[in-house]
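Before relying on records like the one below, remember that each one covers exactly one chain. Contacts with other chains, cofactors or solvent are not represented anywhere in the record.
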Amino acid sequence: MQKILIVEDDANISADLKWRLQEEGFLTEAVFDGILAEKMILRNNYDCIVLDINMPGKNGLEVCKSIRNQAISVPILFLTAFDEAEDKVTGFDSGADDYLTKPFYFKELLARIRSLLKRRPFNTEAPKILSIAGLTIDMAAKQVHRYGETIRLTAREFDILALLATSHGNTVSKRDLIERIWGTRVDVNTNTIEVFINSIRNKIDKGHDIKLIHTRPGFGYYLSGKENES
């Protein structure tokens, strides 16, 4: 049975989510403080975390950054009262995998959680370790390094990078990325893909002469380690 941690300081929302997720067959735990939430995440293995941004102790952004820095890749869904694009970018930059604005419908939350829990398998015939221009992707361990330096990616970022890597230099469209990574979720749009791609670029390409993630305008993205790529 899959285990979900609810980190929400509103007691009514927390209790309601805990009960309704249990009704859907999940094991659930709830906590109201960011500092305690971080301790629980370090001690336990959760399949998904529903994380409010505005909380006492440590806010959700701080908790997310902290656990990502410790290479914990559990899917994280942010809850927030803000819906500005800049706030979403900040959330994704801190390591979030998805973002839901309050107030929300439970069915929408449930759909997003199930989407995060559903790991779409990549080509099983692909090598377990992929290497390109100093970038190493361990598909089994879900670890990424470039020239020996650990690159900490969120679960979504890893899935996107792995999909590009297993496409062998072929261009992957934004629509294909959405369908392969998120499934049939209609609320995920091309702007979301751009946010994730920019985040991955900052993590794997920044400071390196050879850039790996490239855009083919009007078509999509591809991975290449050729020096003459633009």
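The first helix runs from residue 11 to 23.
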